[in-house]
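Appendix B: a complete holo record

For completeness, this appendix reproduces one full record from the ligand-bound portion of the collection. The bound molecule is zinc ion. The inputs are the chain sequence and the ligand SMILES; the output is the full three-dimensional arrangement of the complex, encoded as structure tokens. No fields have been trimmed.
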Amino acid sequence: MTNDLPVCVCCNKPVEVNVDQYEKFEKMHWLCFHLKYEHEGDPDKPCDNPICPWWHLEVYREKLLELGENPEEILSNARHTDRDRELPANYDNLFIKE
Ligand SMILES: [Zn+2]
Ligand SMILES: [Zn+2]
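The structure of the chain with zinc ion bound, as generated:
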């Protein structure tokens, strides 16, 4: 079935989730479209667009901190309960810091 999926012109990977909006996003993944046309500045940082997934993560992170939770600890615990998600050694500081 995956052979029938259209391919993203930006990253050359199959478009699955937003396949019905393939044309609307100019034959790209929604995320590829956002990063190419809407995202301002460094793609590794949140932008001002309220649909930005990086910004969503920042909002969640700030809310967790407000609730007295430690976002890094939550991710660390999740990794330990999911053996397929070992963190590559060089990805130590991936989580956005203030
Ligand atoms: Zn793509
Ligand atoms: Zn963005």
